[in-house]
Amino acid sequence: MQILDLRQIHSESLAPLFTEEIRRWRDELHWDYRPSIALIQRFIDAHSLGGYVAVEDGKPAGYGFYVVEDQKGLIGGLFASSHFPQAPITQKLLTEMLDSLHSTPCLQRVEVQLMPFGTALEPAFLSQYFRLHTRQFMFLPLAEAKLSGGPPSKGLRFEPWSDRAFEAAARLIHLSYADHVDGEINDQYRSEAGGMKFLRNIVLLPGCGQFLPEASFTVRPATGDGLVAMVLTSTVARKVGHTTQICVMPGYQGHGIGRQLMERSVEALRRMGYESLSLTVTAINQPALQLYEHLGFRAIKTFAAGVWEA
Q1: In 27, 225, 234, 247, which residue has its Cα 20 to 30 A from 33's Cα atom?
Q2: pLDDT in tens, 33-92
Q3: Last residue of a domain, one of 129, 151, 172
Q4: Same-domain status, 110 and 70
Q5: What's the number of domains the chain is made of?
Q6: 3-state SS, residue 193
Q7: Do 147 and 261 share a domain, yes or no?
Q8: Residue 172 lies in a domain
Q9: In terms of Cα–Cα distance, which of 44, 190, 8 is closest to 111?
């Protein structure tokens, strides 16, 4: 196996890998990964994306990439072709990326969430480098959604998403995840500034599909302007939506607000002709997992989220 620096190659040489990766996302997750691949190709061809390529018998067998922002590294992708021994290629690429990140001056944290296709990174291998959290990718055919149809909670205003809500939404994210496992996985949840970065990536940039304001909602008290809950939704393929964020302020949790938000999102998607909805959830977050299961979601893939801190 030969390992090449991603900044020394042109994206055209990885075309077979991209084609296979797009197919796996489509077939296994109902996700159109072509926009993400187009963005990755642009960064590769600008020689601005850190990472490595594994070559077997002169052919690209796998690739991985990472980004560094401030004092944090994020492993953004890792894919090994099913035409080659996937486990050793995946482990080698991850090890190379981690060695590079750990040698980066002043780096304090590394985050990774890798969707396994064909082979999963063994927890025993990952645990050498990261604290691990199991996450699930869940899927719901909208025709099978189990909606309660109950009236909205009294004393609350359910409103369509508005970009005027950015600051309040960033504050909501910070307060909702202050003592939550997802704040351990994604440190953007730990501050209002981080919450704002997360929102901009979801709403203004193609960070997780194309934002769909028609199926995104906020909740405010009847007599106030502060947000107490919200759900954000994106389009990730034709007629496929994805819940990119749902959160409820502590103190308002346990009163069915999350379910009402999800049901409004499902109903909006149905009106627009969508056929399915997906989301991801941390397995230890049992209240959220039970909510999604009661709505009819089922887990179709399990993956690991890892965190390393200096």
Answers
A1: 247
A2: 999 999 999 999 999 999 999 999 999 999 999 999 989 999 999 999 999 999 899 999
A3: 129
A4: yes
A5: 2
A6: helix
A7: yes
A8: yes
A9: 190
